[in-house]
Amino acid sequence: MVPTWQLRARFALRLAEMYGSEVPAYHTLVDVCRDVNDETASARGEAGLRLGSIERVTAERHGAIRVGSPRELAQVARVFAAFGMLPVGFYDLRDASKSSVPVVSTAFRPIDRDELARNPFRVFTSMLVTEDRRFFDAETQERLEAFIAARELFGPELLALADQAVLQGGLDDVDADRLLGLATDSFRLTAEPIDRDWYDTLETISAVAADIGGVPATHINHLTPRVLDIDELYARMQARGIAMIDEIQGPPAWEGPDVLLRQTSFRALAEERVFRHADGSVQRGSLRVRFGEVEQRGIALTRAGRELYDRLVVEVDARLRQAGDGATRQEVAREVWRESLPRTERDLVLQELGYFTFRATEVAPDGSALKDLLESGALVAEPIVYEDFLPRSAAGIFQSNLSDEGTRDDDQAGADYDLPRLSELVGAHIHDPFDLYAAQQDESLREAERQLGLRIDTDS
């Protein structure tokens, strides 16, 4: 049997090989990431690897795909379940950007700590919200839904093998190879002709909608490597003459703890596609929809930490408006971070803003308060890496790679979506990421208490 985690590792490799053949600049991105990671790890030593070993960071990827309906989302959930990737988190990108991005999203990833350590492959998956009247009138919605219903993204053999892999916890070599081949091909860029007029109609509303509902198949939109120093990566990619988006999305670089997620990308490249025109002719053209994203992951924040982060983002926006054209977002954010965020991991722990695991040492405890145990060295706090995404950053990457903002009518009513509703549509429980991080932290505390032989007071 090929166990689930090996299926996931092989799936990530196959997708990388396929995507690299379709988007050659991806290989450049991976090469630069590898160089930056090796140099950063060497320069920083153990401190530079507190959020993951060099082996994990270098191998780590996240993909992104887009589907058009609840049926397609439920099917892709079955496919990813075969690889031990479960839905985690709810992201609403519709109001996260000034551009027209009419999608809601979740991410499929491992949830067990050991499984994440073996291979943390994750896929950010967006679903088109066709019933949202801010973007689609009734006629366009009807045509969109008919177009999507008529296509088949995931065939019956693939779905049957995926279900079998879930039941067995893996597959034999022959079935594993077949599953991997079918799953990889389902995300390959299609060679089928695209209806030019229909695609253009959708693109005037949203380039994202056109990429989902204007083509006969889905595809990998980006495959994202992880880097230890995204600012260095950004500079090196520019030095190689590769056009990057205007800025890094997410928290700024500063002297305090790295939190959550920082992302950037090279700009979408023109890719040759085949179009069918109204007169019946088939001609070659190009689209700019896929780009090369890269990420730097930080510490997972608690609910209180995330609320603070969201308030700081609002403050950055306000100061940027006041500053005019004279300052960048990263510069302003750095000032705000210095004013409001703890400068040490220890203070993140004690203020209950970040998630950590706790490890007992050989030092004899002096008291039972968490603060005292950390100060004495009887307990060591180790940060939990943020495994998830930020809707505003995701929308910012999308927006930075669009040539047109599209259209939306905010006088119309939107469509209500939240985590429970998306769970119902997926047909599977969508895990709340905060609950996953909290459970990991609590488990480590209980184990530390057992080893220390006392009850740890986290409230003092």
From TrEMBL:
Keywords in alphabetical order: Dioxygenase, Iron, Oxidoreductase
Enzyme class: oxidoreductase
CDD domains: VOC_YdcJ_like
GO molecular function: dioxygenase activity
Highest taxon above the source species: Bacteria
Signal sequence annotation: none
InterPro entries in the record: HGLS, YdcJ_bac-like
Any Pfam family: HGLS
PANTHER family: 2-OXOADIPATE DIOXYGENASE_DECARBOXYLASE, PTHR39479
Assigned protein family: Belongs to the 2-oxoadipate dioxygenase/decarboxylase family.
Record-given protein name: 2-oxoadipate dioxygenase/decarboxylase
Species name: Glycomyces rhizosphaerae
